[in-house]
Amino acid sequence: MNSRYLRDLSLNGASDSALLIGIDFGTTFSGVAWAWSKRLENINVVTNWDSVLYLNKENEKAPSEIYYGEGTEEVSWGYGIPLEAEPLKWFKLLLVDEGDLQEDVRKSHQIKRAREMLANHRKTAVEVVADYLRLLWKHVIKTIERERGSNSASRLPFRVVLTVPAIWPHNAQQRMREAASKAGILDPRTCGETTLRLVPEPEAAALASLSEFRDREDVQVGEVFVVCDAGGGTVDIISYEIESTAPVVLKECVEGDGKLCGAIFLDEEFEKFIRQAMGKNWTELSQGSIRKLMNDEWENGIKRSFDDDEKKTWTVSVPPDYFSSFRTRMSRHPLERSRGDVPMSSGQFRLSREHLRPIFEKVTLQIRKLVNNQIKAVIAKKCRCPSAIILVGGFGRCRALYQLLREEHSENGIEVLQPSGARP
Length: 424
Prior knowledge:
Distance between the termini: 7 Å
CATH topology of the largest domain: Nucleotidyltransferase, domain 5
Number of domains: 3
Helix content: 25-40%
Structural class: alpha+beta
Largest sheet: 6 strands, mixed
Strand content: 15-25%
Number of helices: 11
């Protein structure tokens, strides 16, 4: 959420007092923030998710995943999906006609599997998106009522912002509006009409970040910033020129670009690596153990903390069912040995930077290429380098990506800005 959108929403509504709700519905993760129009500076990020994995309860985003059980009412979502279940993922991109998707997205395993599961459940993409948004919306309303009180919340109209990719065609945006309506977001309320505005994701991210950095000397009219929106599935690159600083108003400088090279491919590379390290005993792990390992050891551990510190090491604790095949065949701990070049002891893999660097490089190399091409386009049009690269999105908070881009562009005077915390 950004103050420009907050003020526009509060002024354009039927009441000068409203609850402003921003929904960042992503391909892999979704988040929500809200504020009262009279206190625009006080932005509240929704957390407290229902979760089967304790580490995720207070995260600022929840997985964009849904699971339909055997019964018609057995639907779970986000972190609340049973560990052994296979959830439906990537359904957001199914709102786009297949012919409008980039070739790498269209042919990806994730999209093909999502289409298969959609057919199995006999649902349309709009219906699945609506089901997910309905569950997310219910959680948001409960959160607001818990913090403001149900009476206070019921007396205020809602002004809702929903993010969409900047390159989405009109028909995909219309399907998003339809899904939001089916989800109950626009249901009639006695206090006034609920309004819905769709906002381009990179523009919202740029506005939020530049508002954070508005005291910088280079946040001036005419300056150009490259926004690298690195999410779970796609990475979108676009450049904006500042038209106004009070408030911050942007216009597109050069045409954006994007590629299917987000954090999920980093996840796949790590899972492939750890599977090879465990060897045939990987087959001893249940689906629940694999999901827990990937969540606890990778998503909330190595992935967030990996950097260029050559002396730093990381550990991965092996799930208990890894050892099930050893109980009757071995008297000593199976990991008190070494498998290849991955040291193992006391039930843990010990990983160095050299073990992990190839995992990150395979993905970050593609992002660096996107950024470099965008910078060249800016130079060709403006005859000068952009002032900075702004890293946003879940993967945009990766330390390794920040360090790589900083090393590559610092000589040309291009700074890399990486907003921290949940506020952006």
